[in-house]
Amino acid sequence: MRTAIRAAASLVAGIVATGLAGCAAPAGGAGGTVTVFAAASLKAPFTALAEEFEAAHPGTTVTLSFAGSSDLATQISQGAPADVFASADANTMAKLSGAGLVEGSPRDFASNVLTIAVPPGNPASIATFADLARPGVRTVICAAQVPCGAATKALEQETGTTLQPVSEESSVTDVLGKVVSGEADAGLVYVTDVRTAGGKVQEVPFPESARAVNTYPIAAVRTGGNNDLAAAFIETVTGSDGQQLLRGAGFGTP
What we know:
By secondary structure, the protein is α/β, with parallel strands linked by helices. The chain has two domains: 2-111 and 216-248, D-Maltodextrin-Binding Protein, domain 2, CATH 3.40.190.10; 114-211, Periplasmic binding protein-like II (D-Maltodextrin-Binding Protein, domain 2). The protein is built from nine helices and ten strands. The strands form two sheets. Strands 2-1-3-10-4 form a five-stranded mixed sheet. A five-stranded mixed sheet has the order 7-6-8-5-9. Helix 1 packs parallel to helix 2 (43-56), helix 1 packs antiparallel against helix 9 (240-248) and helix 8 (227-238) crosses helix 9. It is globular and about 55 Å long. The two termini are 27 Å apart.
């Protein structure tokens, strides 16, 4: 998994290298550390983005923390030090915003949809969303409180399909890991996760996925200690270079 993420990060890093190289450092040329809490599905593009951001802002360190959006939001609400929060859905961000824990209005920067990941060769012959509910199929999904899990529940309601997963995971990367390890016949993950995994999984797209699109917002955390760098990082993500990187990683427009 780590090798695949590095490979994906290397592929997209070149997209923004030129644009970010011309960015100015924070006011006064000061460096510092900006801590970014981001949804697990953002690991490859944000890793590449952080490396280029550091190169464009000498003396700056970007500390990245990836997990399920709901887990990250809980950590922030409990006082975990973060300067920036990038969520995989609007609802999770709204909880922090409603609690007064983010600065201003969050900015949407990407979107994503679910797809089915299966082991190479698709041994369980999964062809449709409904196949995930077949008896004997080991299906893994995200827990309902996680954005990918909320999208899964929405698709179940939209299609009238009731899944009986063998496990519900706290992040989409954990779902992917179950498929890669052979512990599952199929898993519901984002299309970007299948791309990151390379040949370790096979994708089975399904048309109903368009009925549950997740929009990703980003905002500065009010309790963060480096407002200038937080604002600069957000501008990079939402600016033309960051957007080009995200499109290259498979994310859709907000």
